[in-house]
Design brief:
Distance between the termini: 26 Å
Number of helices: 14
Number of domains: 2
Number of strands: 15
Radius of gyration: 22 Å
Order of helices and strands: EHEHHHHEEEEHEHEHHEHEHEHHEEEEH
Bound molecules: pyridoxal-5'-phosphate, iron/sulfur cluster
Shape: globular
Helix content: 25-40%
CATH architecture of the largest domain: Alpha-Beta Barrel
Structural class: alpha/beta
CATH topology of the largest domain: TIM Barrel
Strand order of the largest sheet: 5-6-7-8-9-10-11-12-13-14-15
Length: 467
C-alpha cells in the first residue's frame, strides 16, 4: 500500500486546449455497441454490461472515453470502473435473474419490470435517511431546498439533476433512472432567495444535483445573480458541487457560455462573497489533461476557490498511494482537499464499499505521505442521518479496542466535535453497524435523534446528503 510516487509532476496526456468547444456526445445503455474501444473487451463483457445497465444508470461522454480512460488497462482501469457497468455491481443472484432475461431476449416490458423490482432491493433510500420538514416560506413548501445543518442550505436546481457522465458508485443513482418520487428538484429561484432572506443564520448556500454545471449559464444566472441582493448579505459563501471539472472541463474554457459563467463567479467574489467550486475528483488520472488544468486556472482567476471531495471506493481509489498522489497534485494546482467520504450503503455498494477499519487505514496511509497543506481533507466521513461522522482513529482504552469518532457536522450543532467511541469492528461499513464501546447501551446522540425524527416526520426526503 505504501508505494512511493516515482514522479511528482505527472505527465500531461490527452486533451489539449482547443480553440472551439468540441461537441458533447453522450452514450447510454442503448449505445454500448457504438463505443468503439469497448468492443475489444469481448462479447461476454459487453453482455455483462448490458445486464447491469438495465438495472443501474449508465451514461458516459466522449471526453471521458477519449481522454480519461486508459483503455490498455480496461477493465481494471480506475476511470473505467468509475463510469462503465461491471458485473460485480449487482449481487450474483440479482445479476443472474437479469442475465436470464437477456439470454432469452425477453420482451422489454419484462426487463423493465424486473429492473424496478431489483432497484427497490438496492436501498434507493440510503441508510440513516432522515424524515424532516421540507422548508417553508410564505406558507409554501420550498421545493429543491434541504436545510439540515443550521448554517447551510442545500439547493437542487431542477435543471441540474443530471451529470455529464454517471459515476458507477453514486448514491444518487435512483434520481437518474426517472423515479420521480426520488428526485429532489426546485422550480424557481424566487422561492429559494426568499427562503434564504428569511433565515439570517444561513451563511452558506450549497448548490448541488446531479451536477448544476450541466446547466446553461443563463439558467444559473437567476440564482447566482439573485444572491447579490442586499437582503442576502448574510449568505457569505456559495458552494457549487460539480464533477464537470473532470468530466467536461470545456464547461469552464471553451463552451459558448463559459466566460459568462466565470463572469458570474467574479461578480459574486467582487461583491464580497466566498465562492467555492466543490470539485468531485475520485482519482489523479482525472487531472492530467491540459484542458483540465486550464479549467482550474480559469476558475481560480475569478477569485473562486476549488475544494475537492470524493468517496473512498474499492477498485477505484482504495489505496493510500492513490489519495496521496491525488491530494499532492491538487495542492500543486491550487485546489484544497476537503473531504474523504465513506461510500454509502446503497446501489452498487456490493462492488464498491470499503469497511470502515480499512477506510481509516487508507486515510492515515495517505496523510502520512503528504505535507500539511494536503492534510486539510477530513475523513473518512459518513454522511449519516444524525450528521457527518468522522472516524478519527483506532485506540485501545482500558483493554478495549475502539473507534474514536466525532461529528464534523451534526443535526444538533452541539454534537459537533464531541468525541465518542464504538467497538472496533473490521467488517462494519456504516454507522448503523457500529456498537457503542464500554458496554454502553446507545451513543450519546441517539435518544435525541430519535425524538427529532418523530418531530419532523411530515415528509421523507431521500438522497439528502452532499457528496
Ligand atoms: C455536508 C453537508 C453540508 C455542508 O457541511 P460542511 O461541514 O459545511 O461542509 C450541508 N448540508 C448537508 C445536508 C450536508 O450533508
Ligand atoms: S457522483 Fe456526482 S457526478 Fe457522479 S453521478 Fe453522482 S452526482 Fe453525478
Amino acid at each position: 500500500m505504501t508505494t512511493v510516487a516515482k514522479r511528482t509532476i505527472p505527465e500531461m496526456r490527452g486533451a489539449g486546449v482547443p480553440d472551439e468547444a468540441p461537441k458533447l456526445q453522450v452514450f447510454t445503455d442503448r449505445h454500448l455497441d457504438k463505443i468503439e474501444p469497448l468492443q475489444r473487451l469481448g462479447e461476454q463483457m459487453l453482455f455483462e454490461m448490458k445486464v447491469v445497465a438495465s438495472v443501474l444508470p449508465f451514461r458516459v461522454n466522449n471526453y471521458v472515453i477519449e481522454n480519461l480512460i486508459d483503455w490498455e488497462r480496461a477493465p481494471d482501469d480506475p476511470i473505467f470502473s468509475l463510469t462503465f457497468p461491471q458485473r460485480g455491481m449487482l449481487d450474483p443472484e440479482m445479476y443472474e435473474q437479469m442475465a436470464e432475461l437477456h439470454r432469452r431476449e425477453a420482451p422489454k416490458e419484462e426487463i423493465t419490470a424486473l429492473a424496478w423490482k431489483l432497484r427497490h432491493q438496492l436501498n434507493p433510500h440510503p441508510a440513516g435517511q432522515m424524515e424532516m420538514n421540507l422548508p417553508e416560506v410564505n406558507g409554501e413548501t420550498v421545493e429543491g431546498v434541504q436545510h439540515k445543518y443550521r448554517e447551510t442550505a442545500l439547493f437542487f436546481p431542477s435543471q441540474g439533476q443530471t451529470c455529464h457522465s454517471y459515476c458507477t458508485f453514486c448514491f444518487r443513482w435512483a434520481q437518474f433512472i426517472g423515479d420521480k418520487d426520488l428526485k429532489i428538484a426546485s422550480k424557481e429561484a424566487g422561492q429559494l432567495l426568499d427562503y434564504l432572506a428569511a433565515h439570517p443564520h444561513l451563511s452558506d448556500l450549497l448548490m448541488t444535483g446531479g451536477d448544476p454545471m450541466v446547466m446553461k449559464t443563463k439558467h444559473l444566472a437567476p440564482y447566482l445573480e439573485g444572491l447579490l441582493d442586499e437582503r442576502l448579505d448574510h449568505v457569505q459563501t456559495v458552494r457549487i458541487g460539480t464533477k464537470a471539472l473532470s468530466f467536461w472541463p470545456y464547461r469552464f474554457v471553451t463552451d459558448k457560455d463559459a466566460d459568462e459563467l466565470l463572469g458570474l463567479f467574479e461578480r459574486l467574489v467582487e461583491s464580497g462573497k466566498h465562492v467555492a467550486v466543490m470539485a468531485h475528483i475520485n482519482h489523479y488520472q482525472e487531472m492530467e489533461n491540459p484542458i483540465f488544468r486550464e479549467a482550474v486556472k480559469r476558475i481560480r482567476a475569478t477569485g473562486a476557490e476549488i475544494r475537492t471531495q470524493s468517496p473512498l471506493i474499492k477498485h477505484i481509489n482504495d489505496s493510500g498511494y492513490a489519495w496521496a498522489r491525488m491530494w499532492r497534485e491538487q495542492v500543486r494546482l491550487g485546489m484544497i482537499p476537503y473531504y474523504m467520504f465513506v461510500e454509502r450503503d446503497t446501489g452498487a455498494k456490493y462492488r464498491f464499499e470499503v469497511p470502515l477499519a480499512e477506510a481509516y487505514d487508507i486515510y492515515r496511509e495517505a496523510m502520512k505521505q503528504v505535507s500539511g497543506l494536503a492534510r486539510t481533507a477530513r475523513g473518512p466521513s459518513m454522511s449519516a442521518g444524525p450528521g457527518k461522522v468522522e472516524i478519527q482513529g483506532v485506540a485501545e482504552i482500558k483493554g478495549e479496542k475502539v473507534f474514536v469518532l466525532r461529528f464534523i457536522q451534526g443535526r444538533n450543532p452541539d454534537w459537533v466535535q464531541r468525541p465518542f467511541f464504538a467497538q472496533y469492528d473490521t467488517e462494519a461499513t456504516w454507522l448503523d453497524e457500529l456498537k457503542p464501546a464500554f458496554g454502553e447501551k446507545a451513543f450519546f446522540f441517539e435518544e435525541e435523534y430519535v425524538a427529532m425524527q418523530s418531530d419532523h416526520g411530515l415528509k421523507v426526503i431521500d438522497a439528502a446528503e452532499v457528496e
